[in-house]
Amino acid sequence: MSEQDNEQNNSVRFADLSLSQPVQDALVEIGYETPSPIQAKAIPVVLSGRDLIGQAQTGTGKTAAFALPLLSMLDPKDEGPKAIILAPTRELALQVAESISNYGRMVKRLHVTAIYGGTDFTRQFRELDRKPAIVVGTPGRIMDHIRRGSLDLSRISHVVLDEADEMLRMGFIEDVEWILEHTPAERQTALFSATMPPRIAAIAKKQLKDPVTVAIKASTATVSTVRQRFIKCNGMRHKIEVLGDLLETEERDAAIVFTRTKSAASEVAEELAQNGHSVEAIHGDISQGRREKAVALLKEGKIDILVATDVAARGLDVDRISHVFNFDIPDDAEPYIHRIGRAGRAGRSGEAILLLTRRDFRKLRNIEDATRQQMQPMPPPSRALIAEIRQAKLEKKIGDIITEGKFNRERTAITDAIANLETDAETLAAVLLKMLQAGKSLPSGISSSSPSFQDNRESRSPRESRGSRQDRDFGRERDRGPRRERPVRDGDAPRARPDRKSDAPAPSADVERFRVEVGHNHQVKPGNIVGAIANEAGLEAKYIGRIDIFDDHSTVDLPKGMPKEVLKVLKKAWVSGQQLQMSRVVEKRRNHFEK
Predict the structure, then answer these.
(1) What protein family is recorded (predicted)?
(2) Which of 323, 380, 405, 459 has the fewest CB atoms within 10 Å, counting from its CB?
(3) Strand locations in 265-418, DSSP E?
(4) In which band, very low, low, confident or very high, does the pLDDT at 509 lie, cut at 50, 70 and 90?
């Protein structure tokens, strides 16, 4: 029996495939909604108990094609290995075991272990003593454990041969046949192979009973107008730094940053917001309404960056997206194709950049094989390029102020300073710029009336602009206090919050307190407010002080002497779909505000 399917059936959803409820719950949490072609065809076959031949390229989603039905069928309470999965390499065995554990996160008492060569037996003995329901391994090490008596396959009910043609090419096929002889005759077997050479066809004929064949061609529809590149990184912190440099140096419009997990999406978005980017995070823990609002803000140009898990990859259509940054590489080619398809819309060119650690390179090769396209390596942005771009931005801002022409007071102060200090204009300008770069306040007569000139972020590296760990962690401290300051409500009837003095201490002498018209009711976080102020006012995040968030508004401490032009800009800035409408708090009467 054979089924050919070369087109993805977008009408089928995972919810339609009779998977167990814990597996469906896990898919919802991960953000997977629509199966790939191999998954849509193979899952019902495996659930029916039939043997299966799956002919599909690596990167088409075949791991989930056998893992999801296996997890739905196995009873973890029944101790001992019930399924064994053979893979050609250590890396693939680890990847498959990790994916199965992820898909089975809601299955109680599930234990999955990976067994492979090149490592000590002791840990593997301990793992097998726990009687895992699913064992994933390379043929040679599986044989070793069978011979030592540490792995008993007598109660195996499911066998999966993953990348069978690769095991043939590597000389493991006799080992595979030996292992199969040690499993019960009454078992369900699934064989996956990108090609079907005669030796694999012979094994399938001998070992599988009346199998259903599902043949899927890998999608190669990566958008031709999107250039695909990758950068080698050393862990998450390095990725965040490289991403910040890319956002600064790439000529772009809007961008999407894709992460693997919800926590990573939140962390990356918070980092970017604290460094002055207009950004929102969308993932499975965020309501559909808030997701739609974030996408609308991106479409309208009120934010420039979305940080998203794959829950946002499908159906997201925003013409102004020029760049897709894959902060984490996906497991398979299908989600990768969906991700980069968000750039280069309507025939326009786009950019897709992957940030890779050493352990990601097998996934990269799998995606390249599946899409038949090779990605080009690129170096991280150089310090020289970053300095050049910052210099150009600084000169443009200065040029804008010169064009505006509103700096007579400052011109007089400079003229007086040149005469009094007996120096020249070039030296004085260099000193003032150095003060700005060091984050020092300018003398009151010289401080600019333009918000643009205060953007001393342009002259600082991303690492410097983040400030200390204490500076970076301020958001969590602030987000705890304000909720305790909410007023007690009378009975069940809600009433408007009065503008009263909060429990927050008065600002110190060198800062002033401002009110912004966005609060808990708008799901705002401190990082959102910091990002908007830093981006619009050109003020480093570390100079933005205490933030208290209330139901319908927030207060924020800023350096004293903020020019009126800056406040005018911040009145019109948008955060969480609200205009800030910033106003200065009058300290003598905290319930009145200057507009």
Answers:
(1) Belongs to the DEAD box helicase family.
(2) 405
(3) 279-282, 305-308, 321-326, 350-356, 376-377
(4) low
